[in-house]
Prior knowledge:
Layout: E1 2-9, E2 12-17, E3 23-27, E4 40-44, E5 47-50, H1 52-71
Amino acid sequence: MLYAIDKIENNIVMAENLKTSEKKQLKIEDFPFQIYEGCLFSIKENHIIKESEKEKLRILKLREKMERLKRHE
C-alpha cells in the first residue's frame, strides 16, 4: 500500500493510504529516512520504504494538473 504523510506533530506521523483514504498513525522514529509532509512511502513486511520515484511522478502530475487549471481560468 502506498501512503502519503499528511501531518507530523509531536513525534506522531499522520499518513493517508492513497487508494483507500484510510488514515494511519505512526511514530516518527519508525522511519529509517528523513520525512516531511507529502512524502510517499509503503510498508512491506513491517518495513517502511521511501517511494521516491512514485513521489516524483505524483508531484509532476499535480504540477501538470495545476497548469491546466491555470490555463482554463
